[in-house]
DNA sequence: TCCCTGACTGGTT
DNA sequence: AAACCAGCCAGGG
């Protein structure tokens, strides 16, 4: 019906965030996904940046956010994260799941990247 | 409504 | 392999 649906103030758009969280929740323990993968699996292939934005606003403790890394296979730096405490936490969690990390916080993307429950023709 | 910002990405240099 | 650059999209001032 009425396609007109003005966003209410305080409603804080971000109606897309839940779709990203849903994808992340499906990542198996010991595997990772890139921001781009999450965006793609959520049906928004060009919104990788939105995924990072969504995670910075994440409150739901049930979402394994630490299983999301950038396209270079490394833990991304947040803004306003003094001393990188958040990044260190993410590294520790990945290590705990059996994923080895380089001194630079990089992992073997080719080996740990989750195929998304369905094999893709080509990885990017 | 314009302008800047960001847990990104892929291609170039 | 690292640094740069341009494209990307929605939120917030």
How many runs of DSSP E, i.e. beta strands?
A: 2
Distance between the termini: 39 Å
Mean pLDDT level:
85
Main structural class: mainly alpha
Report the order of strands and helices: HEHHEHH
Oligomer status: single chain
Query: What gross morphology would you assign?
Result: globular
Helix tally equals 5
- The percentage of residues in β strands lies in under 5%
Largest sheet: 2 strands, parallel
Unreliable spans:
1-11
Sheet with the most strands: spatial strand order: 1-2
User: What is the CA-based Rg, rounded?
Assistant: 16 Å
Helix content: 25-40%
Write the layout of secondary structure elements.
Layout lengths: L16 H9 L7 E2 H7 L6 H9 L11 E2 L15 H12 L12 H4 L12
Parallel strand pairs: 1-2
The protein binds a DNA duplex (13 and 13 nucleotides) through helix 2, helix 3, strand 2 and helix 4.
Quick synopsis:
The protein is mainly alpha-helical. The chain is built from five helices and two strands; from the N terminus they run αβααβαα.
What would you note in describing this structure?
The chain is mainly α and 124 residues long. It is built from five helices and two strands, in the order αβααβαα. The protein has a two-stranded parallel ribbon with strand order 1-2. The longest helix has 12 residues, at 85-96. The relative contact order is 0.17. Residues 1-11 have low confidence and may be disordered. The structure holds a DNA duplex (13 and 13 nucleotides).
What features would you highlight for this structure?
disordered N terminus; 124 residues; DNA-binding; single chain; 3% strand; two-stranded parallel sheet; mainly alpha
């Amino acid at each position: 019906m009425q396609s007109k649906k003005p966003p209410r103030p305080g409603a804080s758009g971000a109606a897309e965030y839940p779709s990203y969280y849903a994808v992340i929740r499906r990542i198996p323990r010991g595997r990772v996904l890139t921001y781009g993968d999450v965006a793609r699996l959520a049906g928004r292939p060009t919104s990788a940046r939105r995924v990072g934005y969504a995670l910075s606003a994440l409150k739901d403790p049930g979402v394994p956010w630490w299983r999301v890394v950038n396209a270079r296979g490394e833990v991304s730096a947040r803004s306003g994260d003094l001393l990188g405490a958040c990044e260190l936490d993410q590294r520790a969690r990945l290590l705990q799941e059996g994923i080895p990390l380089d001194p630079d916080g990089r992992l073997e993307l080719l080996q740990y990247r989750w195929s998304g429950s369905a094999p893709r023709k080509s990885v990017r």
